[in-house]
Design a protein that fits this description.
The complex is a heterodimer of chains A (259) and B (292). With 259 residues, chain A is an alpha/beta fold. Chain A contains 11 helices and 10 strands. With 292 residues, chain B is mainly alpha-helical. The chains are: A alpha/beta (259), B mainly alpha (292).
Chain lengths: 259, 292
């Protein structure tokens, strides 16, 4: 674990977090982790190890499914998210999904400000324009779409759609950006652009990214978690983990013994 | 050895061809009744299928008799039926669509609940109730308390018949939407209701519209429930509390009056064309607005 005695340095703290889909069977088992602001944290592990499940606990996505039970504490800026309004939690923790999912009925412009619309936050035309432009600029999509704002979001290519979804998430200016294998449905060139983007976004946001791609984790993350069968086996700086893993299972995973 | 395999392949190919031929033949056979019906209606109805059919109200038995005696075509059309059908379909749609769509959303969102399965079964049962039974029930619910046959009663009967279809098509089209769409909306901090109304419903709109249009076209030709609720009228009526005619009711009236019987064919042809047209529109819309 990363040692730091100043708890308030951490933007996100997971304390004894467990998630079960079936009572008594834990998909995520007693995870403790502290995440610093403006870092990229990669969650790695083989399929079914609970990495997405852990990520989705952070914006209380599991609340949608009554059979899923989440226990423990997750502190966002020191405040327990389970005591907050879930809608507020989700505004503070934006999410990018595995497959690009722009709203199919909305234009590119409306997709970017969809968060404000869905939250019923009134904006003037000028504010809207500014948010749309700055969000699309941060994901390097502005120049590509500025002349086709009224076209549907689904009109874009897969990589552009995913950047649109990132723009939609950051338009709300969240504290944390949760990414669930955001490049797994994309081609190598689009993947590369998203990875560059993540490194740029790190300046303003704290990013937690689930990935099954070890080299991706090595390229973009500051810290890495390795999960196996719901357990957080190892959590350390990425450099440390990729050079001198402490746990034998991490080493085996990284060297391709299983995965 | 090779030869043996070769003959086996030939045999299989021949069997495949034969089976394919049989399938094609029977598919073609199912088309025959439709074409025969259209042919028959065209053959018998084309003479009366003119502008008058759309612009004039149904003739009285007397007028028709005099025209027949002097060898002319029967004067008049079915305008009062067309307006009545329109009025009752609008009433039925206004009543059935909100209820049907909300129920459909409930079933799609809570697919496994006990209440959902009861509703789903009841809705299937409702679809199976003979239309005349629905008519009779509505007679006791609406016609009797209001002391009058009315377009409203007809609309209620048609709405009840439309409900199961709208519920089912809404449920199916909302279920077809990828789960990630709803999650994306909620992940942005939208409330459940907002996400349903502003993300899911618009995305499913194509399906909802098609389903509703198909339900409309399905009940458009209903006669039995209207006989005991809307009754029929010889003039154009836009008052929902008054008896009203409808296209299928006119066909029934023409059938019962020997002097008017030659109007049956043109009217039936028109009804069939409207129903087929609505169906085709519904299908093209569902293709166009499909969300992948």
């Amino acid at each position: 674990m990363i040692n730091n005695n100043m708890a308030r340095d951490y933007l996100l703290q997971l304390k004894n977090v467990s998630v079960s889909y079936v009572r008594g069977k834990y998909a995520v088992d007693k995870v403790d982790a502290d995440i610093k602001a403006n870092t990229v944290t990669a969650i790695m592990g083989p399929s079914g190890c609970g990495k997405s499940t852990l990520l989705r606990a952070i914006n209380r996505m599991h609340d949608l499914y009554p059979e899923i039970e989440t226990t423990g504490e997750i502190l966002l800026k020191g405040e327990n998210i389970f005591h907050m309004n879930p809608m507020k939690v989700r505004r503070l923790a934006g999410m990018v999904f595995q497959r690009p999912n722009p709203f199919p009925t909305m234009s590119i412009y409306d997709n970017v400000i969809a968060g404000y619309k869905l939250n019923g936050i009134p904006l003037t035309k000028k504010e809207k324009d500014e948010i749309v432009e700055s969000s699309l600029r941060s994901v390097a999509l502005w120049d590509e779409v500025k002349d086709s704002m009224t076209k549907k979001g689904t009109f874009l290519s897969g990589g552009q759609q995913q950047r649109l979804c990132i723009a939609r998430a950051i338009a709300l200016k969240p504290e944390v950006l949760l990414m669930d294998e955001p490049t797994s449905a994309l081609d190598p060139i689009s993947t590369n652009r998203i990875e560059e983007l993540i490194l740029e976004l790190k300046e303003h946001y704290t990013i937690v990214i689930v990935t099954h791609n070890m080299s991706q984790a090595a390229r973009i993350s500051d810290n890495s978690m390795f999960m196996y069968l719901g357990e957080l086996v190892e959590y350390d700086s990425t450099r440390q983990m990729f050079t001198k893993p402490k746990d034998k299972r991490t080493e085996e995973y990284l060297t391709g013994v299983f995965g | 050895m090779t030869k043996k395999i070769h003959t086996k392949t030939e045999y299989r190919k021949a069997k495949d061809k034969l089976f394919f031929g049989i399938v094609c033949l029977f598919s073609a056979l199912t088309m025959i009744p439709l074409f025969l019906i259209i042919w028959e209606l065209l053959k018998r109805g084309y003479k009366q299928f003119n502008l008058d059919l759309f612009t004039k109200i149904a003739p009285t038995s007397m007028d028709a008799m005099f025209a027949k005696m002097s060898g002319d075509a029967i004067p008049g059309g079915i305008l009062n039926g067309l307006t009545g059908t329109l009025l009752m379909l609008v009433l039925a749609t206004i009543m059935a669509i909100p209820v049907g769509i909300l129920t459909g959303i409930y079933l799609a969102e809570k697919p496994k609940g006990k209440f959902s399965s009861i509703i789903r079964n009841l809705s299937d049962l409702l679809q199976g109730i003979p239309s005349i039974v629905i008519g009779v029930i509505v007679y006791f619910w609406v016609v009797k308390p209001m002391y009058s046959f009315s377009a409203l009663a007809g609309g209620v009967a048609l709405a009840i018949m439309m409900l199961p279809m709208i519920i089912r098509s809404t449920e199916e089209s909302v279920k077809m939407l990828p789960a990630s769409l709803k999650e994306a909306g909620l992940a942005l901090g939208g409330s459940y209701t907002t996400v349903i109304l502003r993300v899911l419903l618009p995305s499913a709109f194509g399906g909802l519209f098609t389903g509703s249009l198909l339900a409309v076209s399905r009940v458009m030709g209903e006669t039995a429930p209207l006989l005991v609720t809307a009754l029929g009228a010889s003039a154009i009526n836009w008052d929902i509390t008054q008896p009203t005619s409808a296209v299928p009711l006119l066909i029934w009236e023409f059938y019962n009056d020997p002097n008017l019987s030659s109007l049956i064919w043109a009217t039936s042809l028109l009804l069939l064309l409207i129903v087929l047209g609505t169906n085709l529109i519904a299908k093209s819309i569902s293709r166009k607005w499909k969300i992948q």
